[in-house]
Specification:
126 residues; alpha/beta; Nucleotidyltransferase, domain 5; five-stranded mixed β-sheet; 4 helices; globular
């Protein structure tokens, strides 16, 4: 008997910095699969993409700062056929109240894209 499994569809979120990017991988229901740091270099971009794809089919990647620190990564992902969306940083007032937490920001980046996909799916059914 042959068993056919659906490939796991995942969403990636990336918090970008000048020298290091931090990626989070989420499953189809928003569960955190992993968080990993990668150098902001061509080799780092390739490693980041491979790491995300190691969790399943990468549906979309939410990248913070596609016009600045995330520009090179966004181009690399797009050239590899990944749909890339810009994810805004949290509001400055919210960050000041809560303090900056990179692990929390990475999850927020990935989850905000995941929620956007749910909203698009919901709207397309109506």
């Amino acid at each position: 008997m042959t068993t056919i499994e659906d490939a796991r569809v995942i969403t990636g979120g990336v918090d970008t910095h000048a020298d290091m990017h931090v990626a989070a991988a989420l499953d189809s229901i928003g569960g955190l699969l992993g968080v990993q740091e990668f150098p902001a270099t061509a080799a780092g971009y390739a490693s980041l993409l491979g790491w995300l794809r190691g969790f399943g089919t990468l549906a979309v990647a939410g990248v913070e700062g596609t016009g600045s620190y995330g520009a090179g990564l966004a181009r690399h992902l797009a050239a590899a056929g990944v749909r890339v969306v810009e994810v805004d940083r949290p509001d400055r007032q919210d960050r000041a109240r809560q303090g900056k937490s990179d692990p929390l920001l990475r999850r927020e980046v990935a989850r905000s894209e995941w929620l956007c996909r749910l909203e698009v799916r919901r709207m397309s059914k109506t």
